[in-house]
Fold this protein.
Amino acid sequence: MKKIDKNLIIGVIRSATHKAGKQIEQGKLVTADQFEKMLEQQKNITICFFGLNV
């Protein structure tokens, strides 16, 4: 795996974690399914923006 691919994967995870953290700060619970959807959304954004498949 190329270094850029690793960085993109890390970025996707960090973005989804940030979104989940914001919801937790608002007093909302985040289930595993919701977090998985957040990861999928971030992955799709990354694919669209960078034109890569992560």
In short: The chain has two helices and no strands. The two ends are 10 Å apart (CA to CA). Residues 14 and 26 are 19 Å apart (CA to CA). The chain has a mean pLDDT of 88.
